[in-house]
Design a protein that fits this description.
By secondary structure, this protein is an alpha+beta fold. The protein has two helices and four strands; from the N terminus they run ββββαα. The radius of gyration is 12 Å and the shape is elongated.
């Protein structure tokens, strides 16, 4: 599965998220704030459950609060 979407966070911050299922239960997640060159990315090995959009967003909220807050 592959998914890409944008969401307005914290009132005015546009964030682009991506999610890609890779072989052997691995998942690749990214988050990028609009207008910024930095892309936050995570390779999740042995992801127990397929992620949904809310799960991806929660992961970055937990791991990198400045992205979403």
């Amino acid at each position: 599965m592959e998914d890409e979407w944008t969401k307005v966070m914290s009132g005015d911050r546009l964030v682009k998220f991506t999610y890609v299922d890779l072989p052997a239960g691995t998942a690749f997640l990214t988050a990028q704030i609009a207008g910024h060159d930095v892309v936050y990315s995570v390779m999740m090995r042995h992801a127990e459950h397929p992620f949904n959009r809310e799960g991806v967003e929660r992961h970055f909220d937990y791991e990198c609060p400045p992205i979403l807050n």
